[in-house]
Amino acid sequence: MKTVAVVDARKRFAQLLASVEAGEEVVITRRGRTVARLVPERPRTAAEVFAPLWDEAFSDLEAPDDLPATPVSAW
């Protein structure tokens, strides 16, 4: 984890972003107190992205019972 003062972060922003892209966490401080934290974006699955939408939009629906597996015929 790298710690950088706001003044230095302004001067070296592109370098800090390169560090974050490489996986490093950067803490930005003002007068010794943390004011921001830059962290790498982690990949998310589609399920993680759409879960909140599903819960809101379809909260009154119930999942159907699982059906037994059926063989798929050849073309």
Automatic annotation (TrEMBL):
Record function comment: Antitoxin component of a type II toxin-antitoxin (TA) system.
Protein origin, superkingdom: Bacteria
Lineage, uppermost ranks: Bacteria, Pseudomonadati, Pseudomonadota, Gammaproteobacteria, Chromatiales
Gene3D superfamilies recorded: YefM-like domain
Record's signal peptide: none
InterPro entries registered for this protein in UniProt: Antitoxin_Phd/YefM, phD-YefM_TA_antitoxins, YefM-like_sf
Provenance organism: Wenzhouxiangella limi
SUPFAM superfamilies: YefM-like (SSF143120)
Descriptive protein name: Antitoxin
Annotated family: Belongs to the phD/YefM antitoxin family.
